[in-house]
Design a protein that fits this description.
The chain is mostly helical and 201 residues long. It has a domain at 1-105: 3-Layer(aba) Sandwich (Rossmann fold). It has 7 helices and 3 strands, in the order ββααβααααα. It has helices at residues 42-58, 65-69, 89-100, 103-113, 142-159, 166-177, 181-199, and strands at residues 3-8, 27-32, 73-75. The chain has a 3-stranded parallel β-sheet, with helices on both faces. The radius of gyration is 20 Å and the shape is flat. The chain starts with a strand and ends with a helix.
């Protein structure tokens, strides 16, 4: 589970009516229309707008300032792949969403999106395919890869304590679920294979 607090970066309001109950530990502030901000003012804008939204969140019942101040923010651009500071926003959004997601949602989310992540220095396919698959569009830098690795590894350890290889995971699941476990075990094995190739393990 994750909660997104989206607001246009250029809006005058700062987040009135933010009432979501106890979801703030998994919340993320997203500023849209970052392209409307002048590059020279962008960093100041992001810092100040984040502070204002956090202040509004902290006013909600049972939300401590510590919880509100730990909610990260990401600015996205509706017309460009980069924000006014020249950085790619999709990758930062992806990583931050993963980090803020509940433990139960992290592994399914990662497995569902792993094909969108461009592996470091992966060669381009030169195959004449009449039904080509879309190319991976999330190109993580080393810091972002490390952050994803930390979150997925931590979530995985909580899901399957002591299992560190795809074959072992598949065997455990297969033994537990019987014949139906073969498909599940294969999925877990594929997940471990994806982790290994992505992080160079």
């Amino acid at each position: 589970m994750i909660a997104w607090v989206c607001t246009p970066g250029c809006a005058a309001r700062r987040g009135n009516g933010l009432r979501f109950g106890g979801v703030w530990e998994n919340a993320l502030i997203i500023f849209t229309f970052a392209n409307k901000v002048e590059p020279a003012k962008y960093q100041y804008f992001l810092q100040k707008r984040t502070e204002l939204v956090r202040q509004e969140i902290a006013k909600q019942p049972k939300v401590s300032p510590k919880v509100a101040n730990n909610i990260p923010s990401v600015a996205i651009d509706n017309e460009s792949k980069t924000t006014p500071d020249g950085k790619k926003w999709l990758e930062e959004l992806y990583v931050t969403v993963t980090e803020r997601m509940s433990e139960n949602g992290t592994i399914p989310f990662f497995m569902a999106t792993i094909d969108r992540i461009k592996k470091p220095e992966s060669p381009k396919k030169v195959v004449d395919d009449p039904f080509p698959q879309s190319e991976p569009d999330i190109e993580l830098n080393q810091n972002q890869l490390k952050r994803i690795n930390t979150k997925t590894t931590g979530s995985l350890e909580k899901m399957i304590a002591g299992v560190t290889a795809g074959a072992s995971a598949g065997a455990v699941v297969g033994a537990f679920f019987g014949p139906a476990g073969a498909g599940i075990g294969a999925g877990i094995g594929a997940f471990f294979g994806g982790i290994a190739s992505l992080f160079g393990l």
